[in-house]
């Protein structure tokens, strides 16, 4: 048994007591007794299933906190979004803005609903939005879009992998036809090949219209995957629908140069008086802070450089019915601040992984639909605009938090608003 480091006994004293008393083995021993609390086996929403679940849960908490009358009345709306439904969680929603966006698709002043339990967050984004609007608005440009799924095929040896690829490259039109037969809105736009020894990863990239598109591309790729399994002249030893090359819900460096979801850049030039008025600091100090923290990000092994994209993305995604787990990849990007020719501040953000949609997913649910409607971005034809607004919101947050650190207000704001 490895020796314990007892140099800091205050940190290990409890563990020592457990170790010497012999309770660790007892507590960690498998327990195969039947679970005491059994819920329904059926995952779907029905009055019967809800009643059965709450027969158990009401012993643990108050039903109305999760299954309030409004939620109960609209329960069937959630059938395509969740299994083993018991109610809804109410996250406080605040509004930031107006945020002025001068984009290719988003053009106007937007009120931004943000769902969070973190004090000071909405206030910070509101301050950044006010600054951007006062400065004439953020310019925002959608640069690229595409959602990937990456099936992998394993063969006995490299030569078989090569023969497989030689066949695959002749099948593009067939793959495209099969994939697009599963969706009215998706389009297979590209296929890339990555060979790693005796394994072949196929990178299928789709345009997903106004949907975020993860389910769409999974279903479409699965049809092609089945076709390959049946028709490939070289049969793989093994194959899986996704080989983890897509970056789905994981931070990854590849998309910094490419795209997953929607890639957007947003920028603004701010005069020195505006920075001083709204942020109580100077452009020079903000630029210096950016330089120092970029080195810090490099030392820590960060992918990209930003202060807190995740705050904006999680709050916006939760409010607007997006897949919140996509924050893991969406929060990758680069923030840059420089002095401009007029002695003011140039600030820009580039986010290559904005995973948003204005149809499908959770966008049709009552609260989430209402939040999209506040921005005027619910429904068909609005997803590209939502991506540009999202990037501008992240820019607002970067300006605000960097300003707060430079002015020495960061801790004070949290003390004031969180207490």
Automatic annotation (TrEMBL):
**Domain of life of the source:** Bacteria
Q: Name one Pfam family in it.
A: HMG-CoA_red
User: Could you tell me the EC number(s) of this protein?
Assistant: 1.1.1.34
Q: Which UniProt keywords apply?
A: NADP, Oxidoreductase
The protein's matches in PANTHER family, at most eight in alphabetical order, are given as: 3-HYDROXY-3-METHYLGLUTARYL-COENZYME A REDUCTASE (PTHR10572:SF24)
Question: Which family does the similarity line name?
Answer: Belongs to the HMG-CoA reductase family.
Protein name listed in UniProt: hydroxymethylglutaryl-CoA reductase (NADPH)
Q: Which organism is it from?
A: Vibrio zhanjiangensis
Query: What broad taxonomic lineage does this protein's source fall under?
Result: Bacteria, Pseudomonadati, Pseudomonadota, Gammaproteobacteria, Vibrionales
């Amino acid at each position: 048994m490895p020796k314990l480091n007892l140099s800091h006994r205050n940190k290990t004293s409890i563990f020592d007591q457990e170790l010497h008393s012999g309770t660790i083995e007892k507590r960690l021993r498998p327990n195969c007794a039947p679970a005491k609390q059994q819920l329904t086996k059926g995952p779907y929403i029905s009055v019967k299933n809800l009643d059965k679940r709450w027969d158990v849960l009401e012993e643990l908490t108050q039903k109305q906190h999760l299954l309030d009358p409004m939620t109960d009345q609209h329960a069937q709306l959630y059938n395509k979004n969740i299994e083993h439904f018991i109610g809804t969680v109410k996250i406080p929603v605040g509004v930031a803005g107006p945020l002025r966006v001068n984009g290719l698709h988003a053009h106007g002043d937007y009120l931004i609903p943000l769902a969070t339990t973190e004090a000071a967050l909405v206030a910070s984004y509101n301050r950044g939005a006010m600054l951007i609007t006062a400065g004439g608005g953020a310019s925002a440009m959608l640069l690229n879009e595409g959602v990937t799924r990456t099936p992998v095929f394993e063969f006995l040896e490299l030569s078989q992998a090569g023969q497989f690829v030689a066949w695959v490259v002749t099948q593009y039109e067939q793959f495209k036809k099969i994939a697009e037969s599963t969706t009215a809105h998706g389009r297979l736009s590209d296929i890339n090949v990555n060979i790693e020894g005796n394994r072949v990863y196929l990178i299928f990239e789709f345009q997903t219209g106004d949907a975020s598109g993860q389910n769409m591309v999974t279903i479409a790729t699965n049809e092609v995957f089945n076709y390959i399994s049946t028709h490939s002249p070289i049969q793989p030893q093994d194959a899986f629908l996704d080989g983890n090359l897509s970056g789905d819900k994981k931070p990854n460096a590849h998309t910094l140069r490419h795209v997953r979801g929607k890639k957007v850049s947003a920028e603004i030039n701010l005069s020195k008086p505006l920075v001083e008025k709204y942020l109580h600091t100077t452009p020079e100090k903000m630029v210096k802070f950016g330089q120092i923290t970029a080195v810090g990000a490099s030392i820590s092994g960060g992918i990209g450089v930003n202060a807190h994209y995740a705050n904006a993305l999680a709050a916006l995604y939760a409010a607007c019915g997006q897949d919140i787990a996509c924050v893991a990849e969406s929060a990758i990007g680069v923030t840059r601040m420089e002095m401009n020719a007029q002695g003011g501040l140039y600030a820009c953000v580039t986010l290559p992984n904005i995973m948003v949609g204005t149809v499908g997913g959770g966008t049709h649910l009552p609260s989430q639909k209402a939040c999209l409607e506040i921005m005027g971005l619910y429904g068909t034809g609005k997803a590209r605009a939502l991506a540009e607004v999202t990037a501008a919101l992240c820019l607002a947050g970067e300006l605000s938090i960097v300003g707060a650190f430079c002015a020495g207000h960061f801790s004070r704001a949290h003390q004031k608003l969180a207490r």
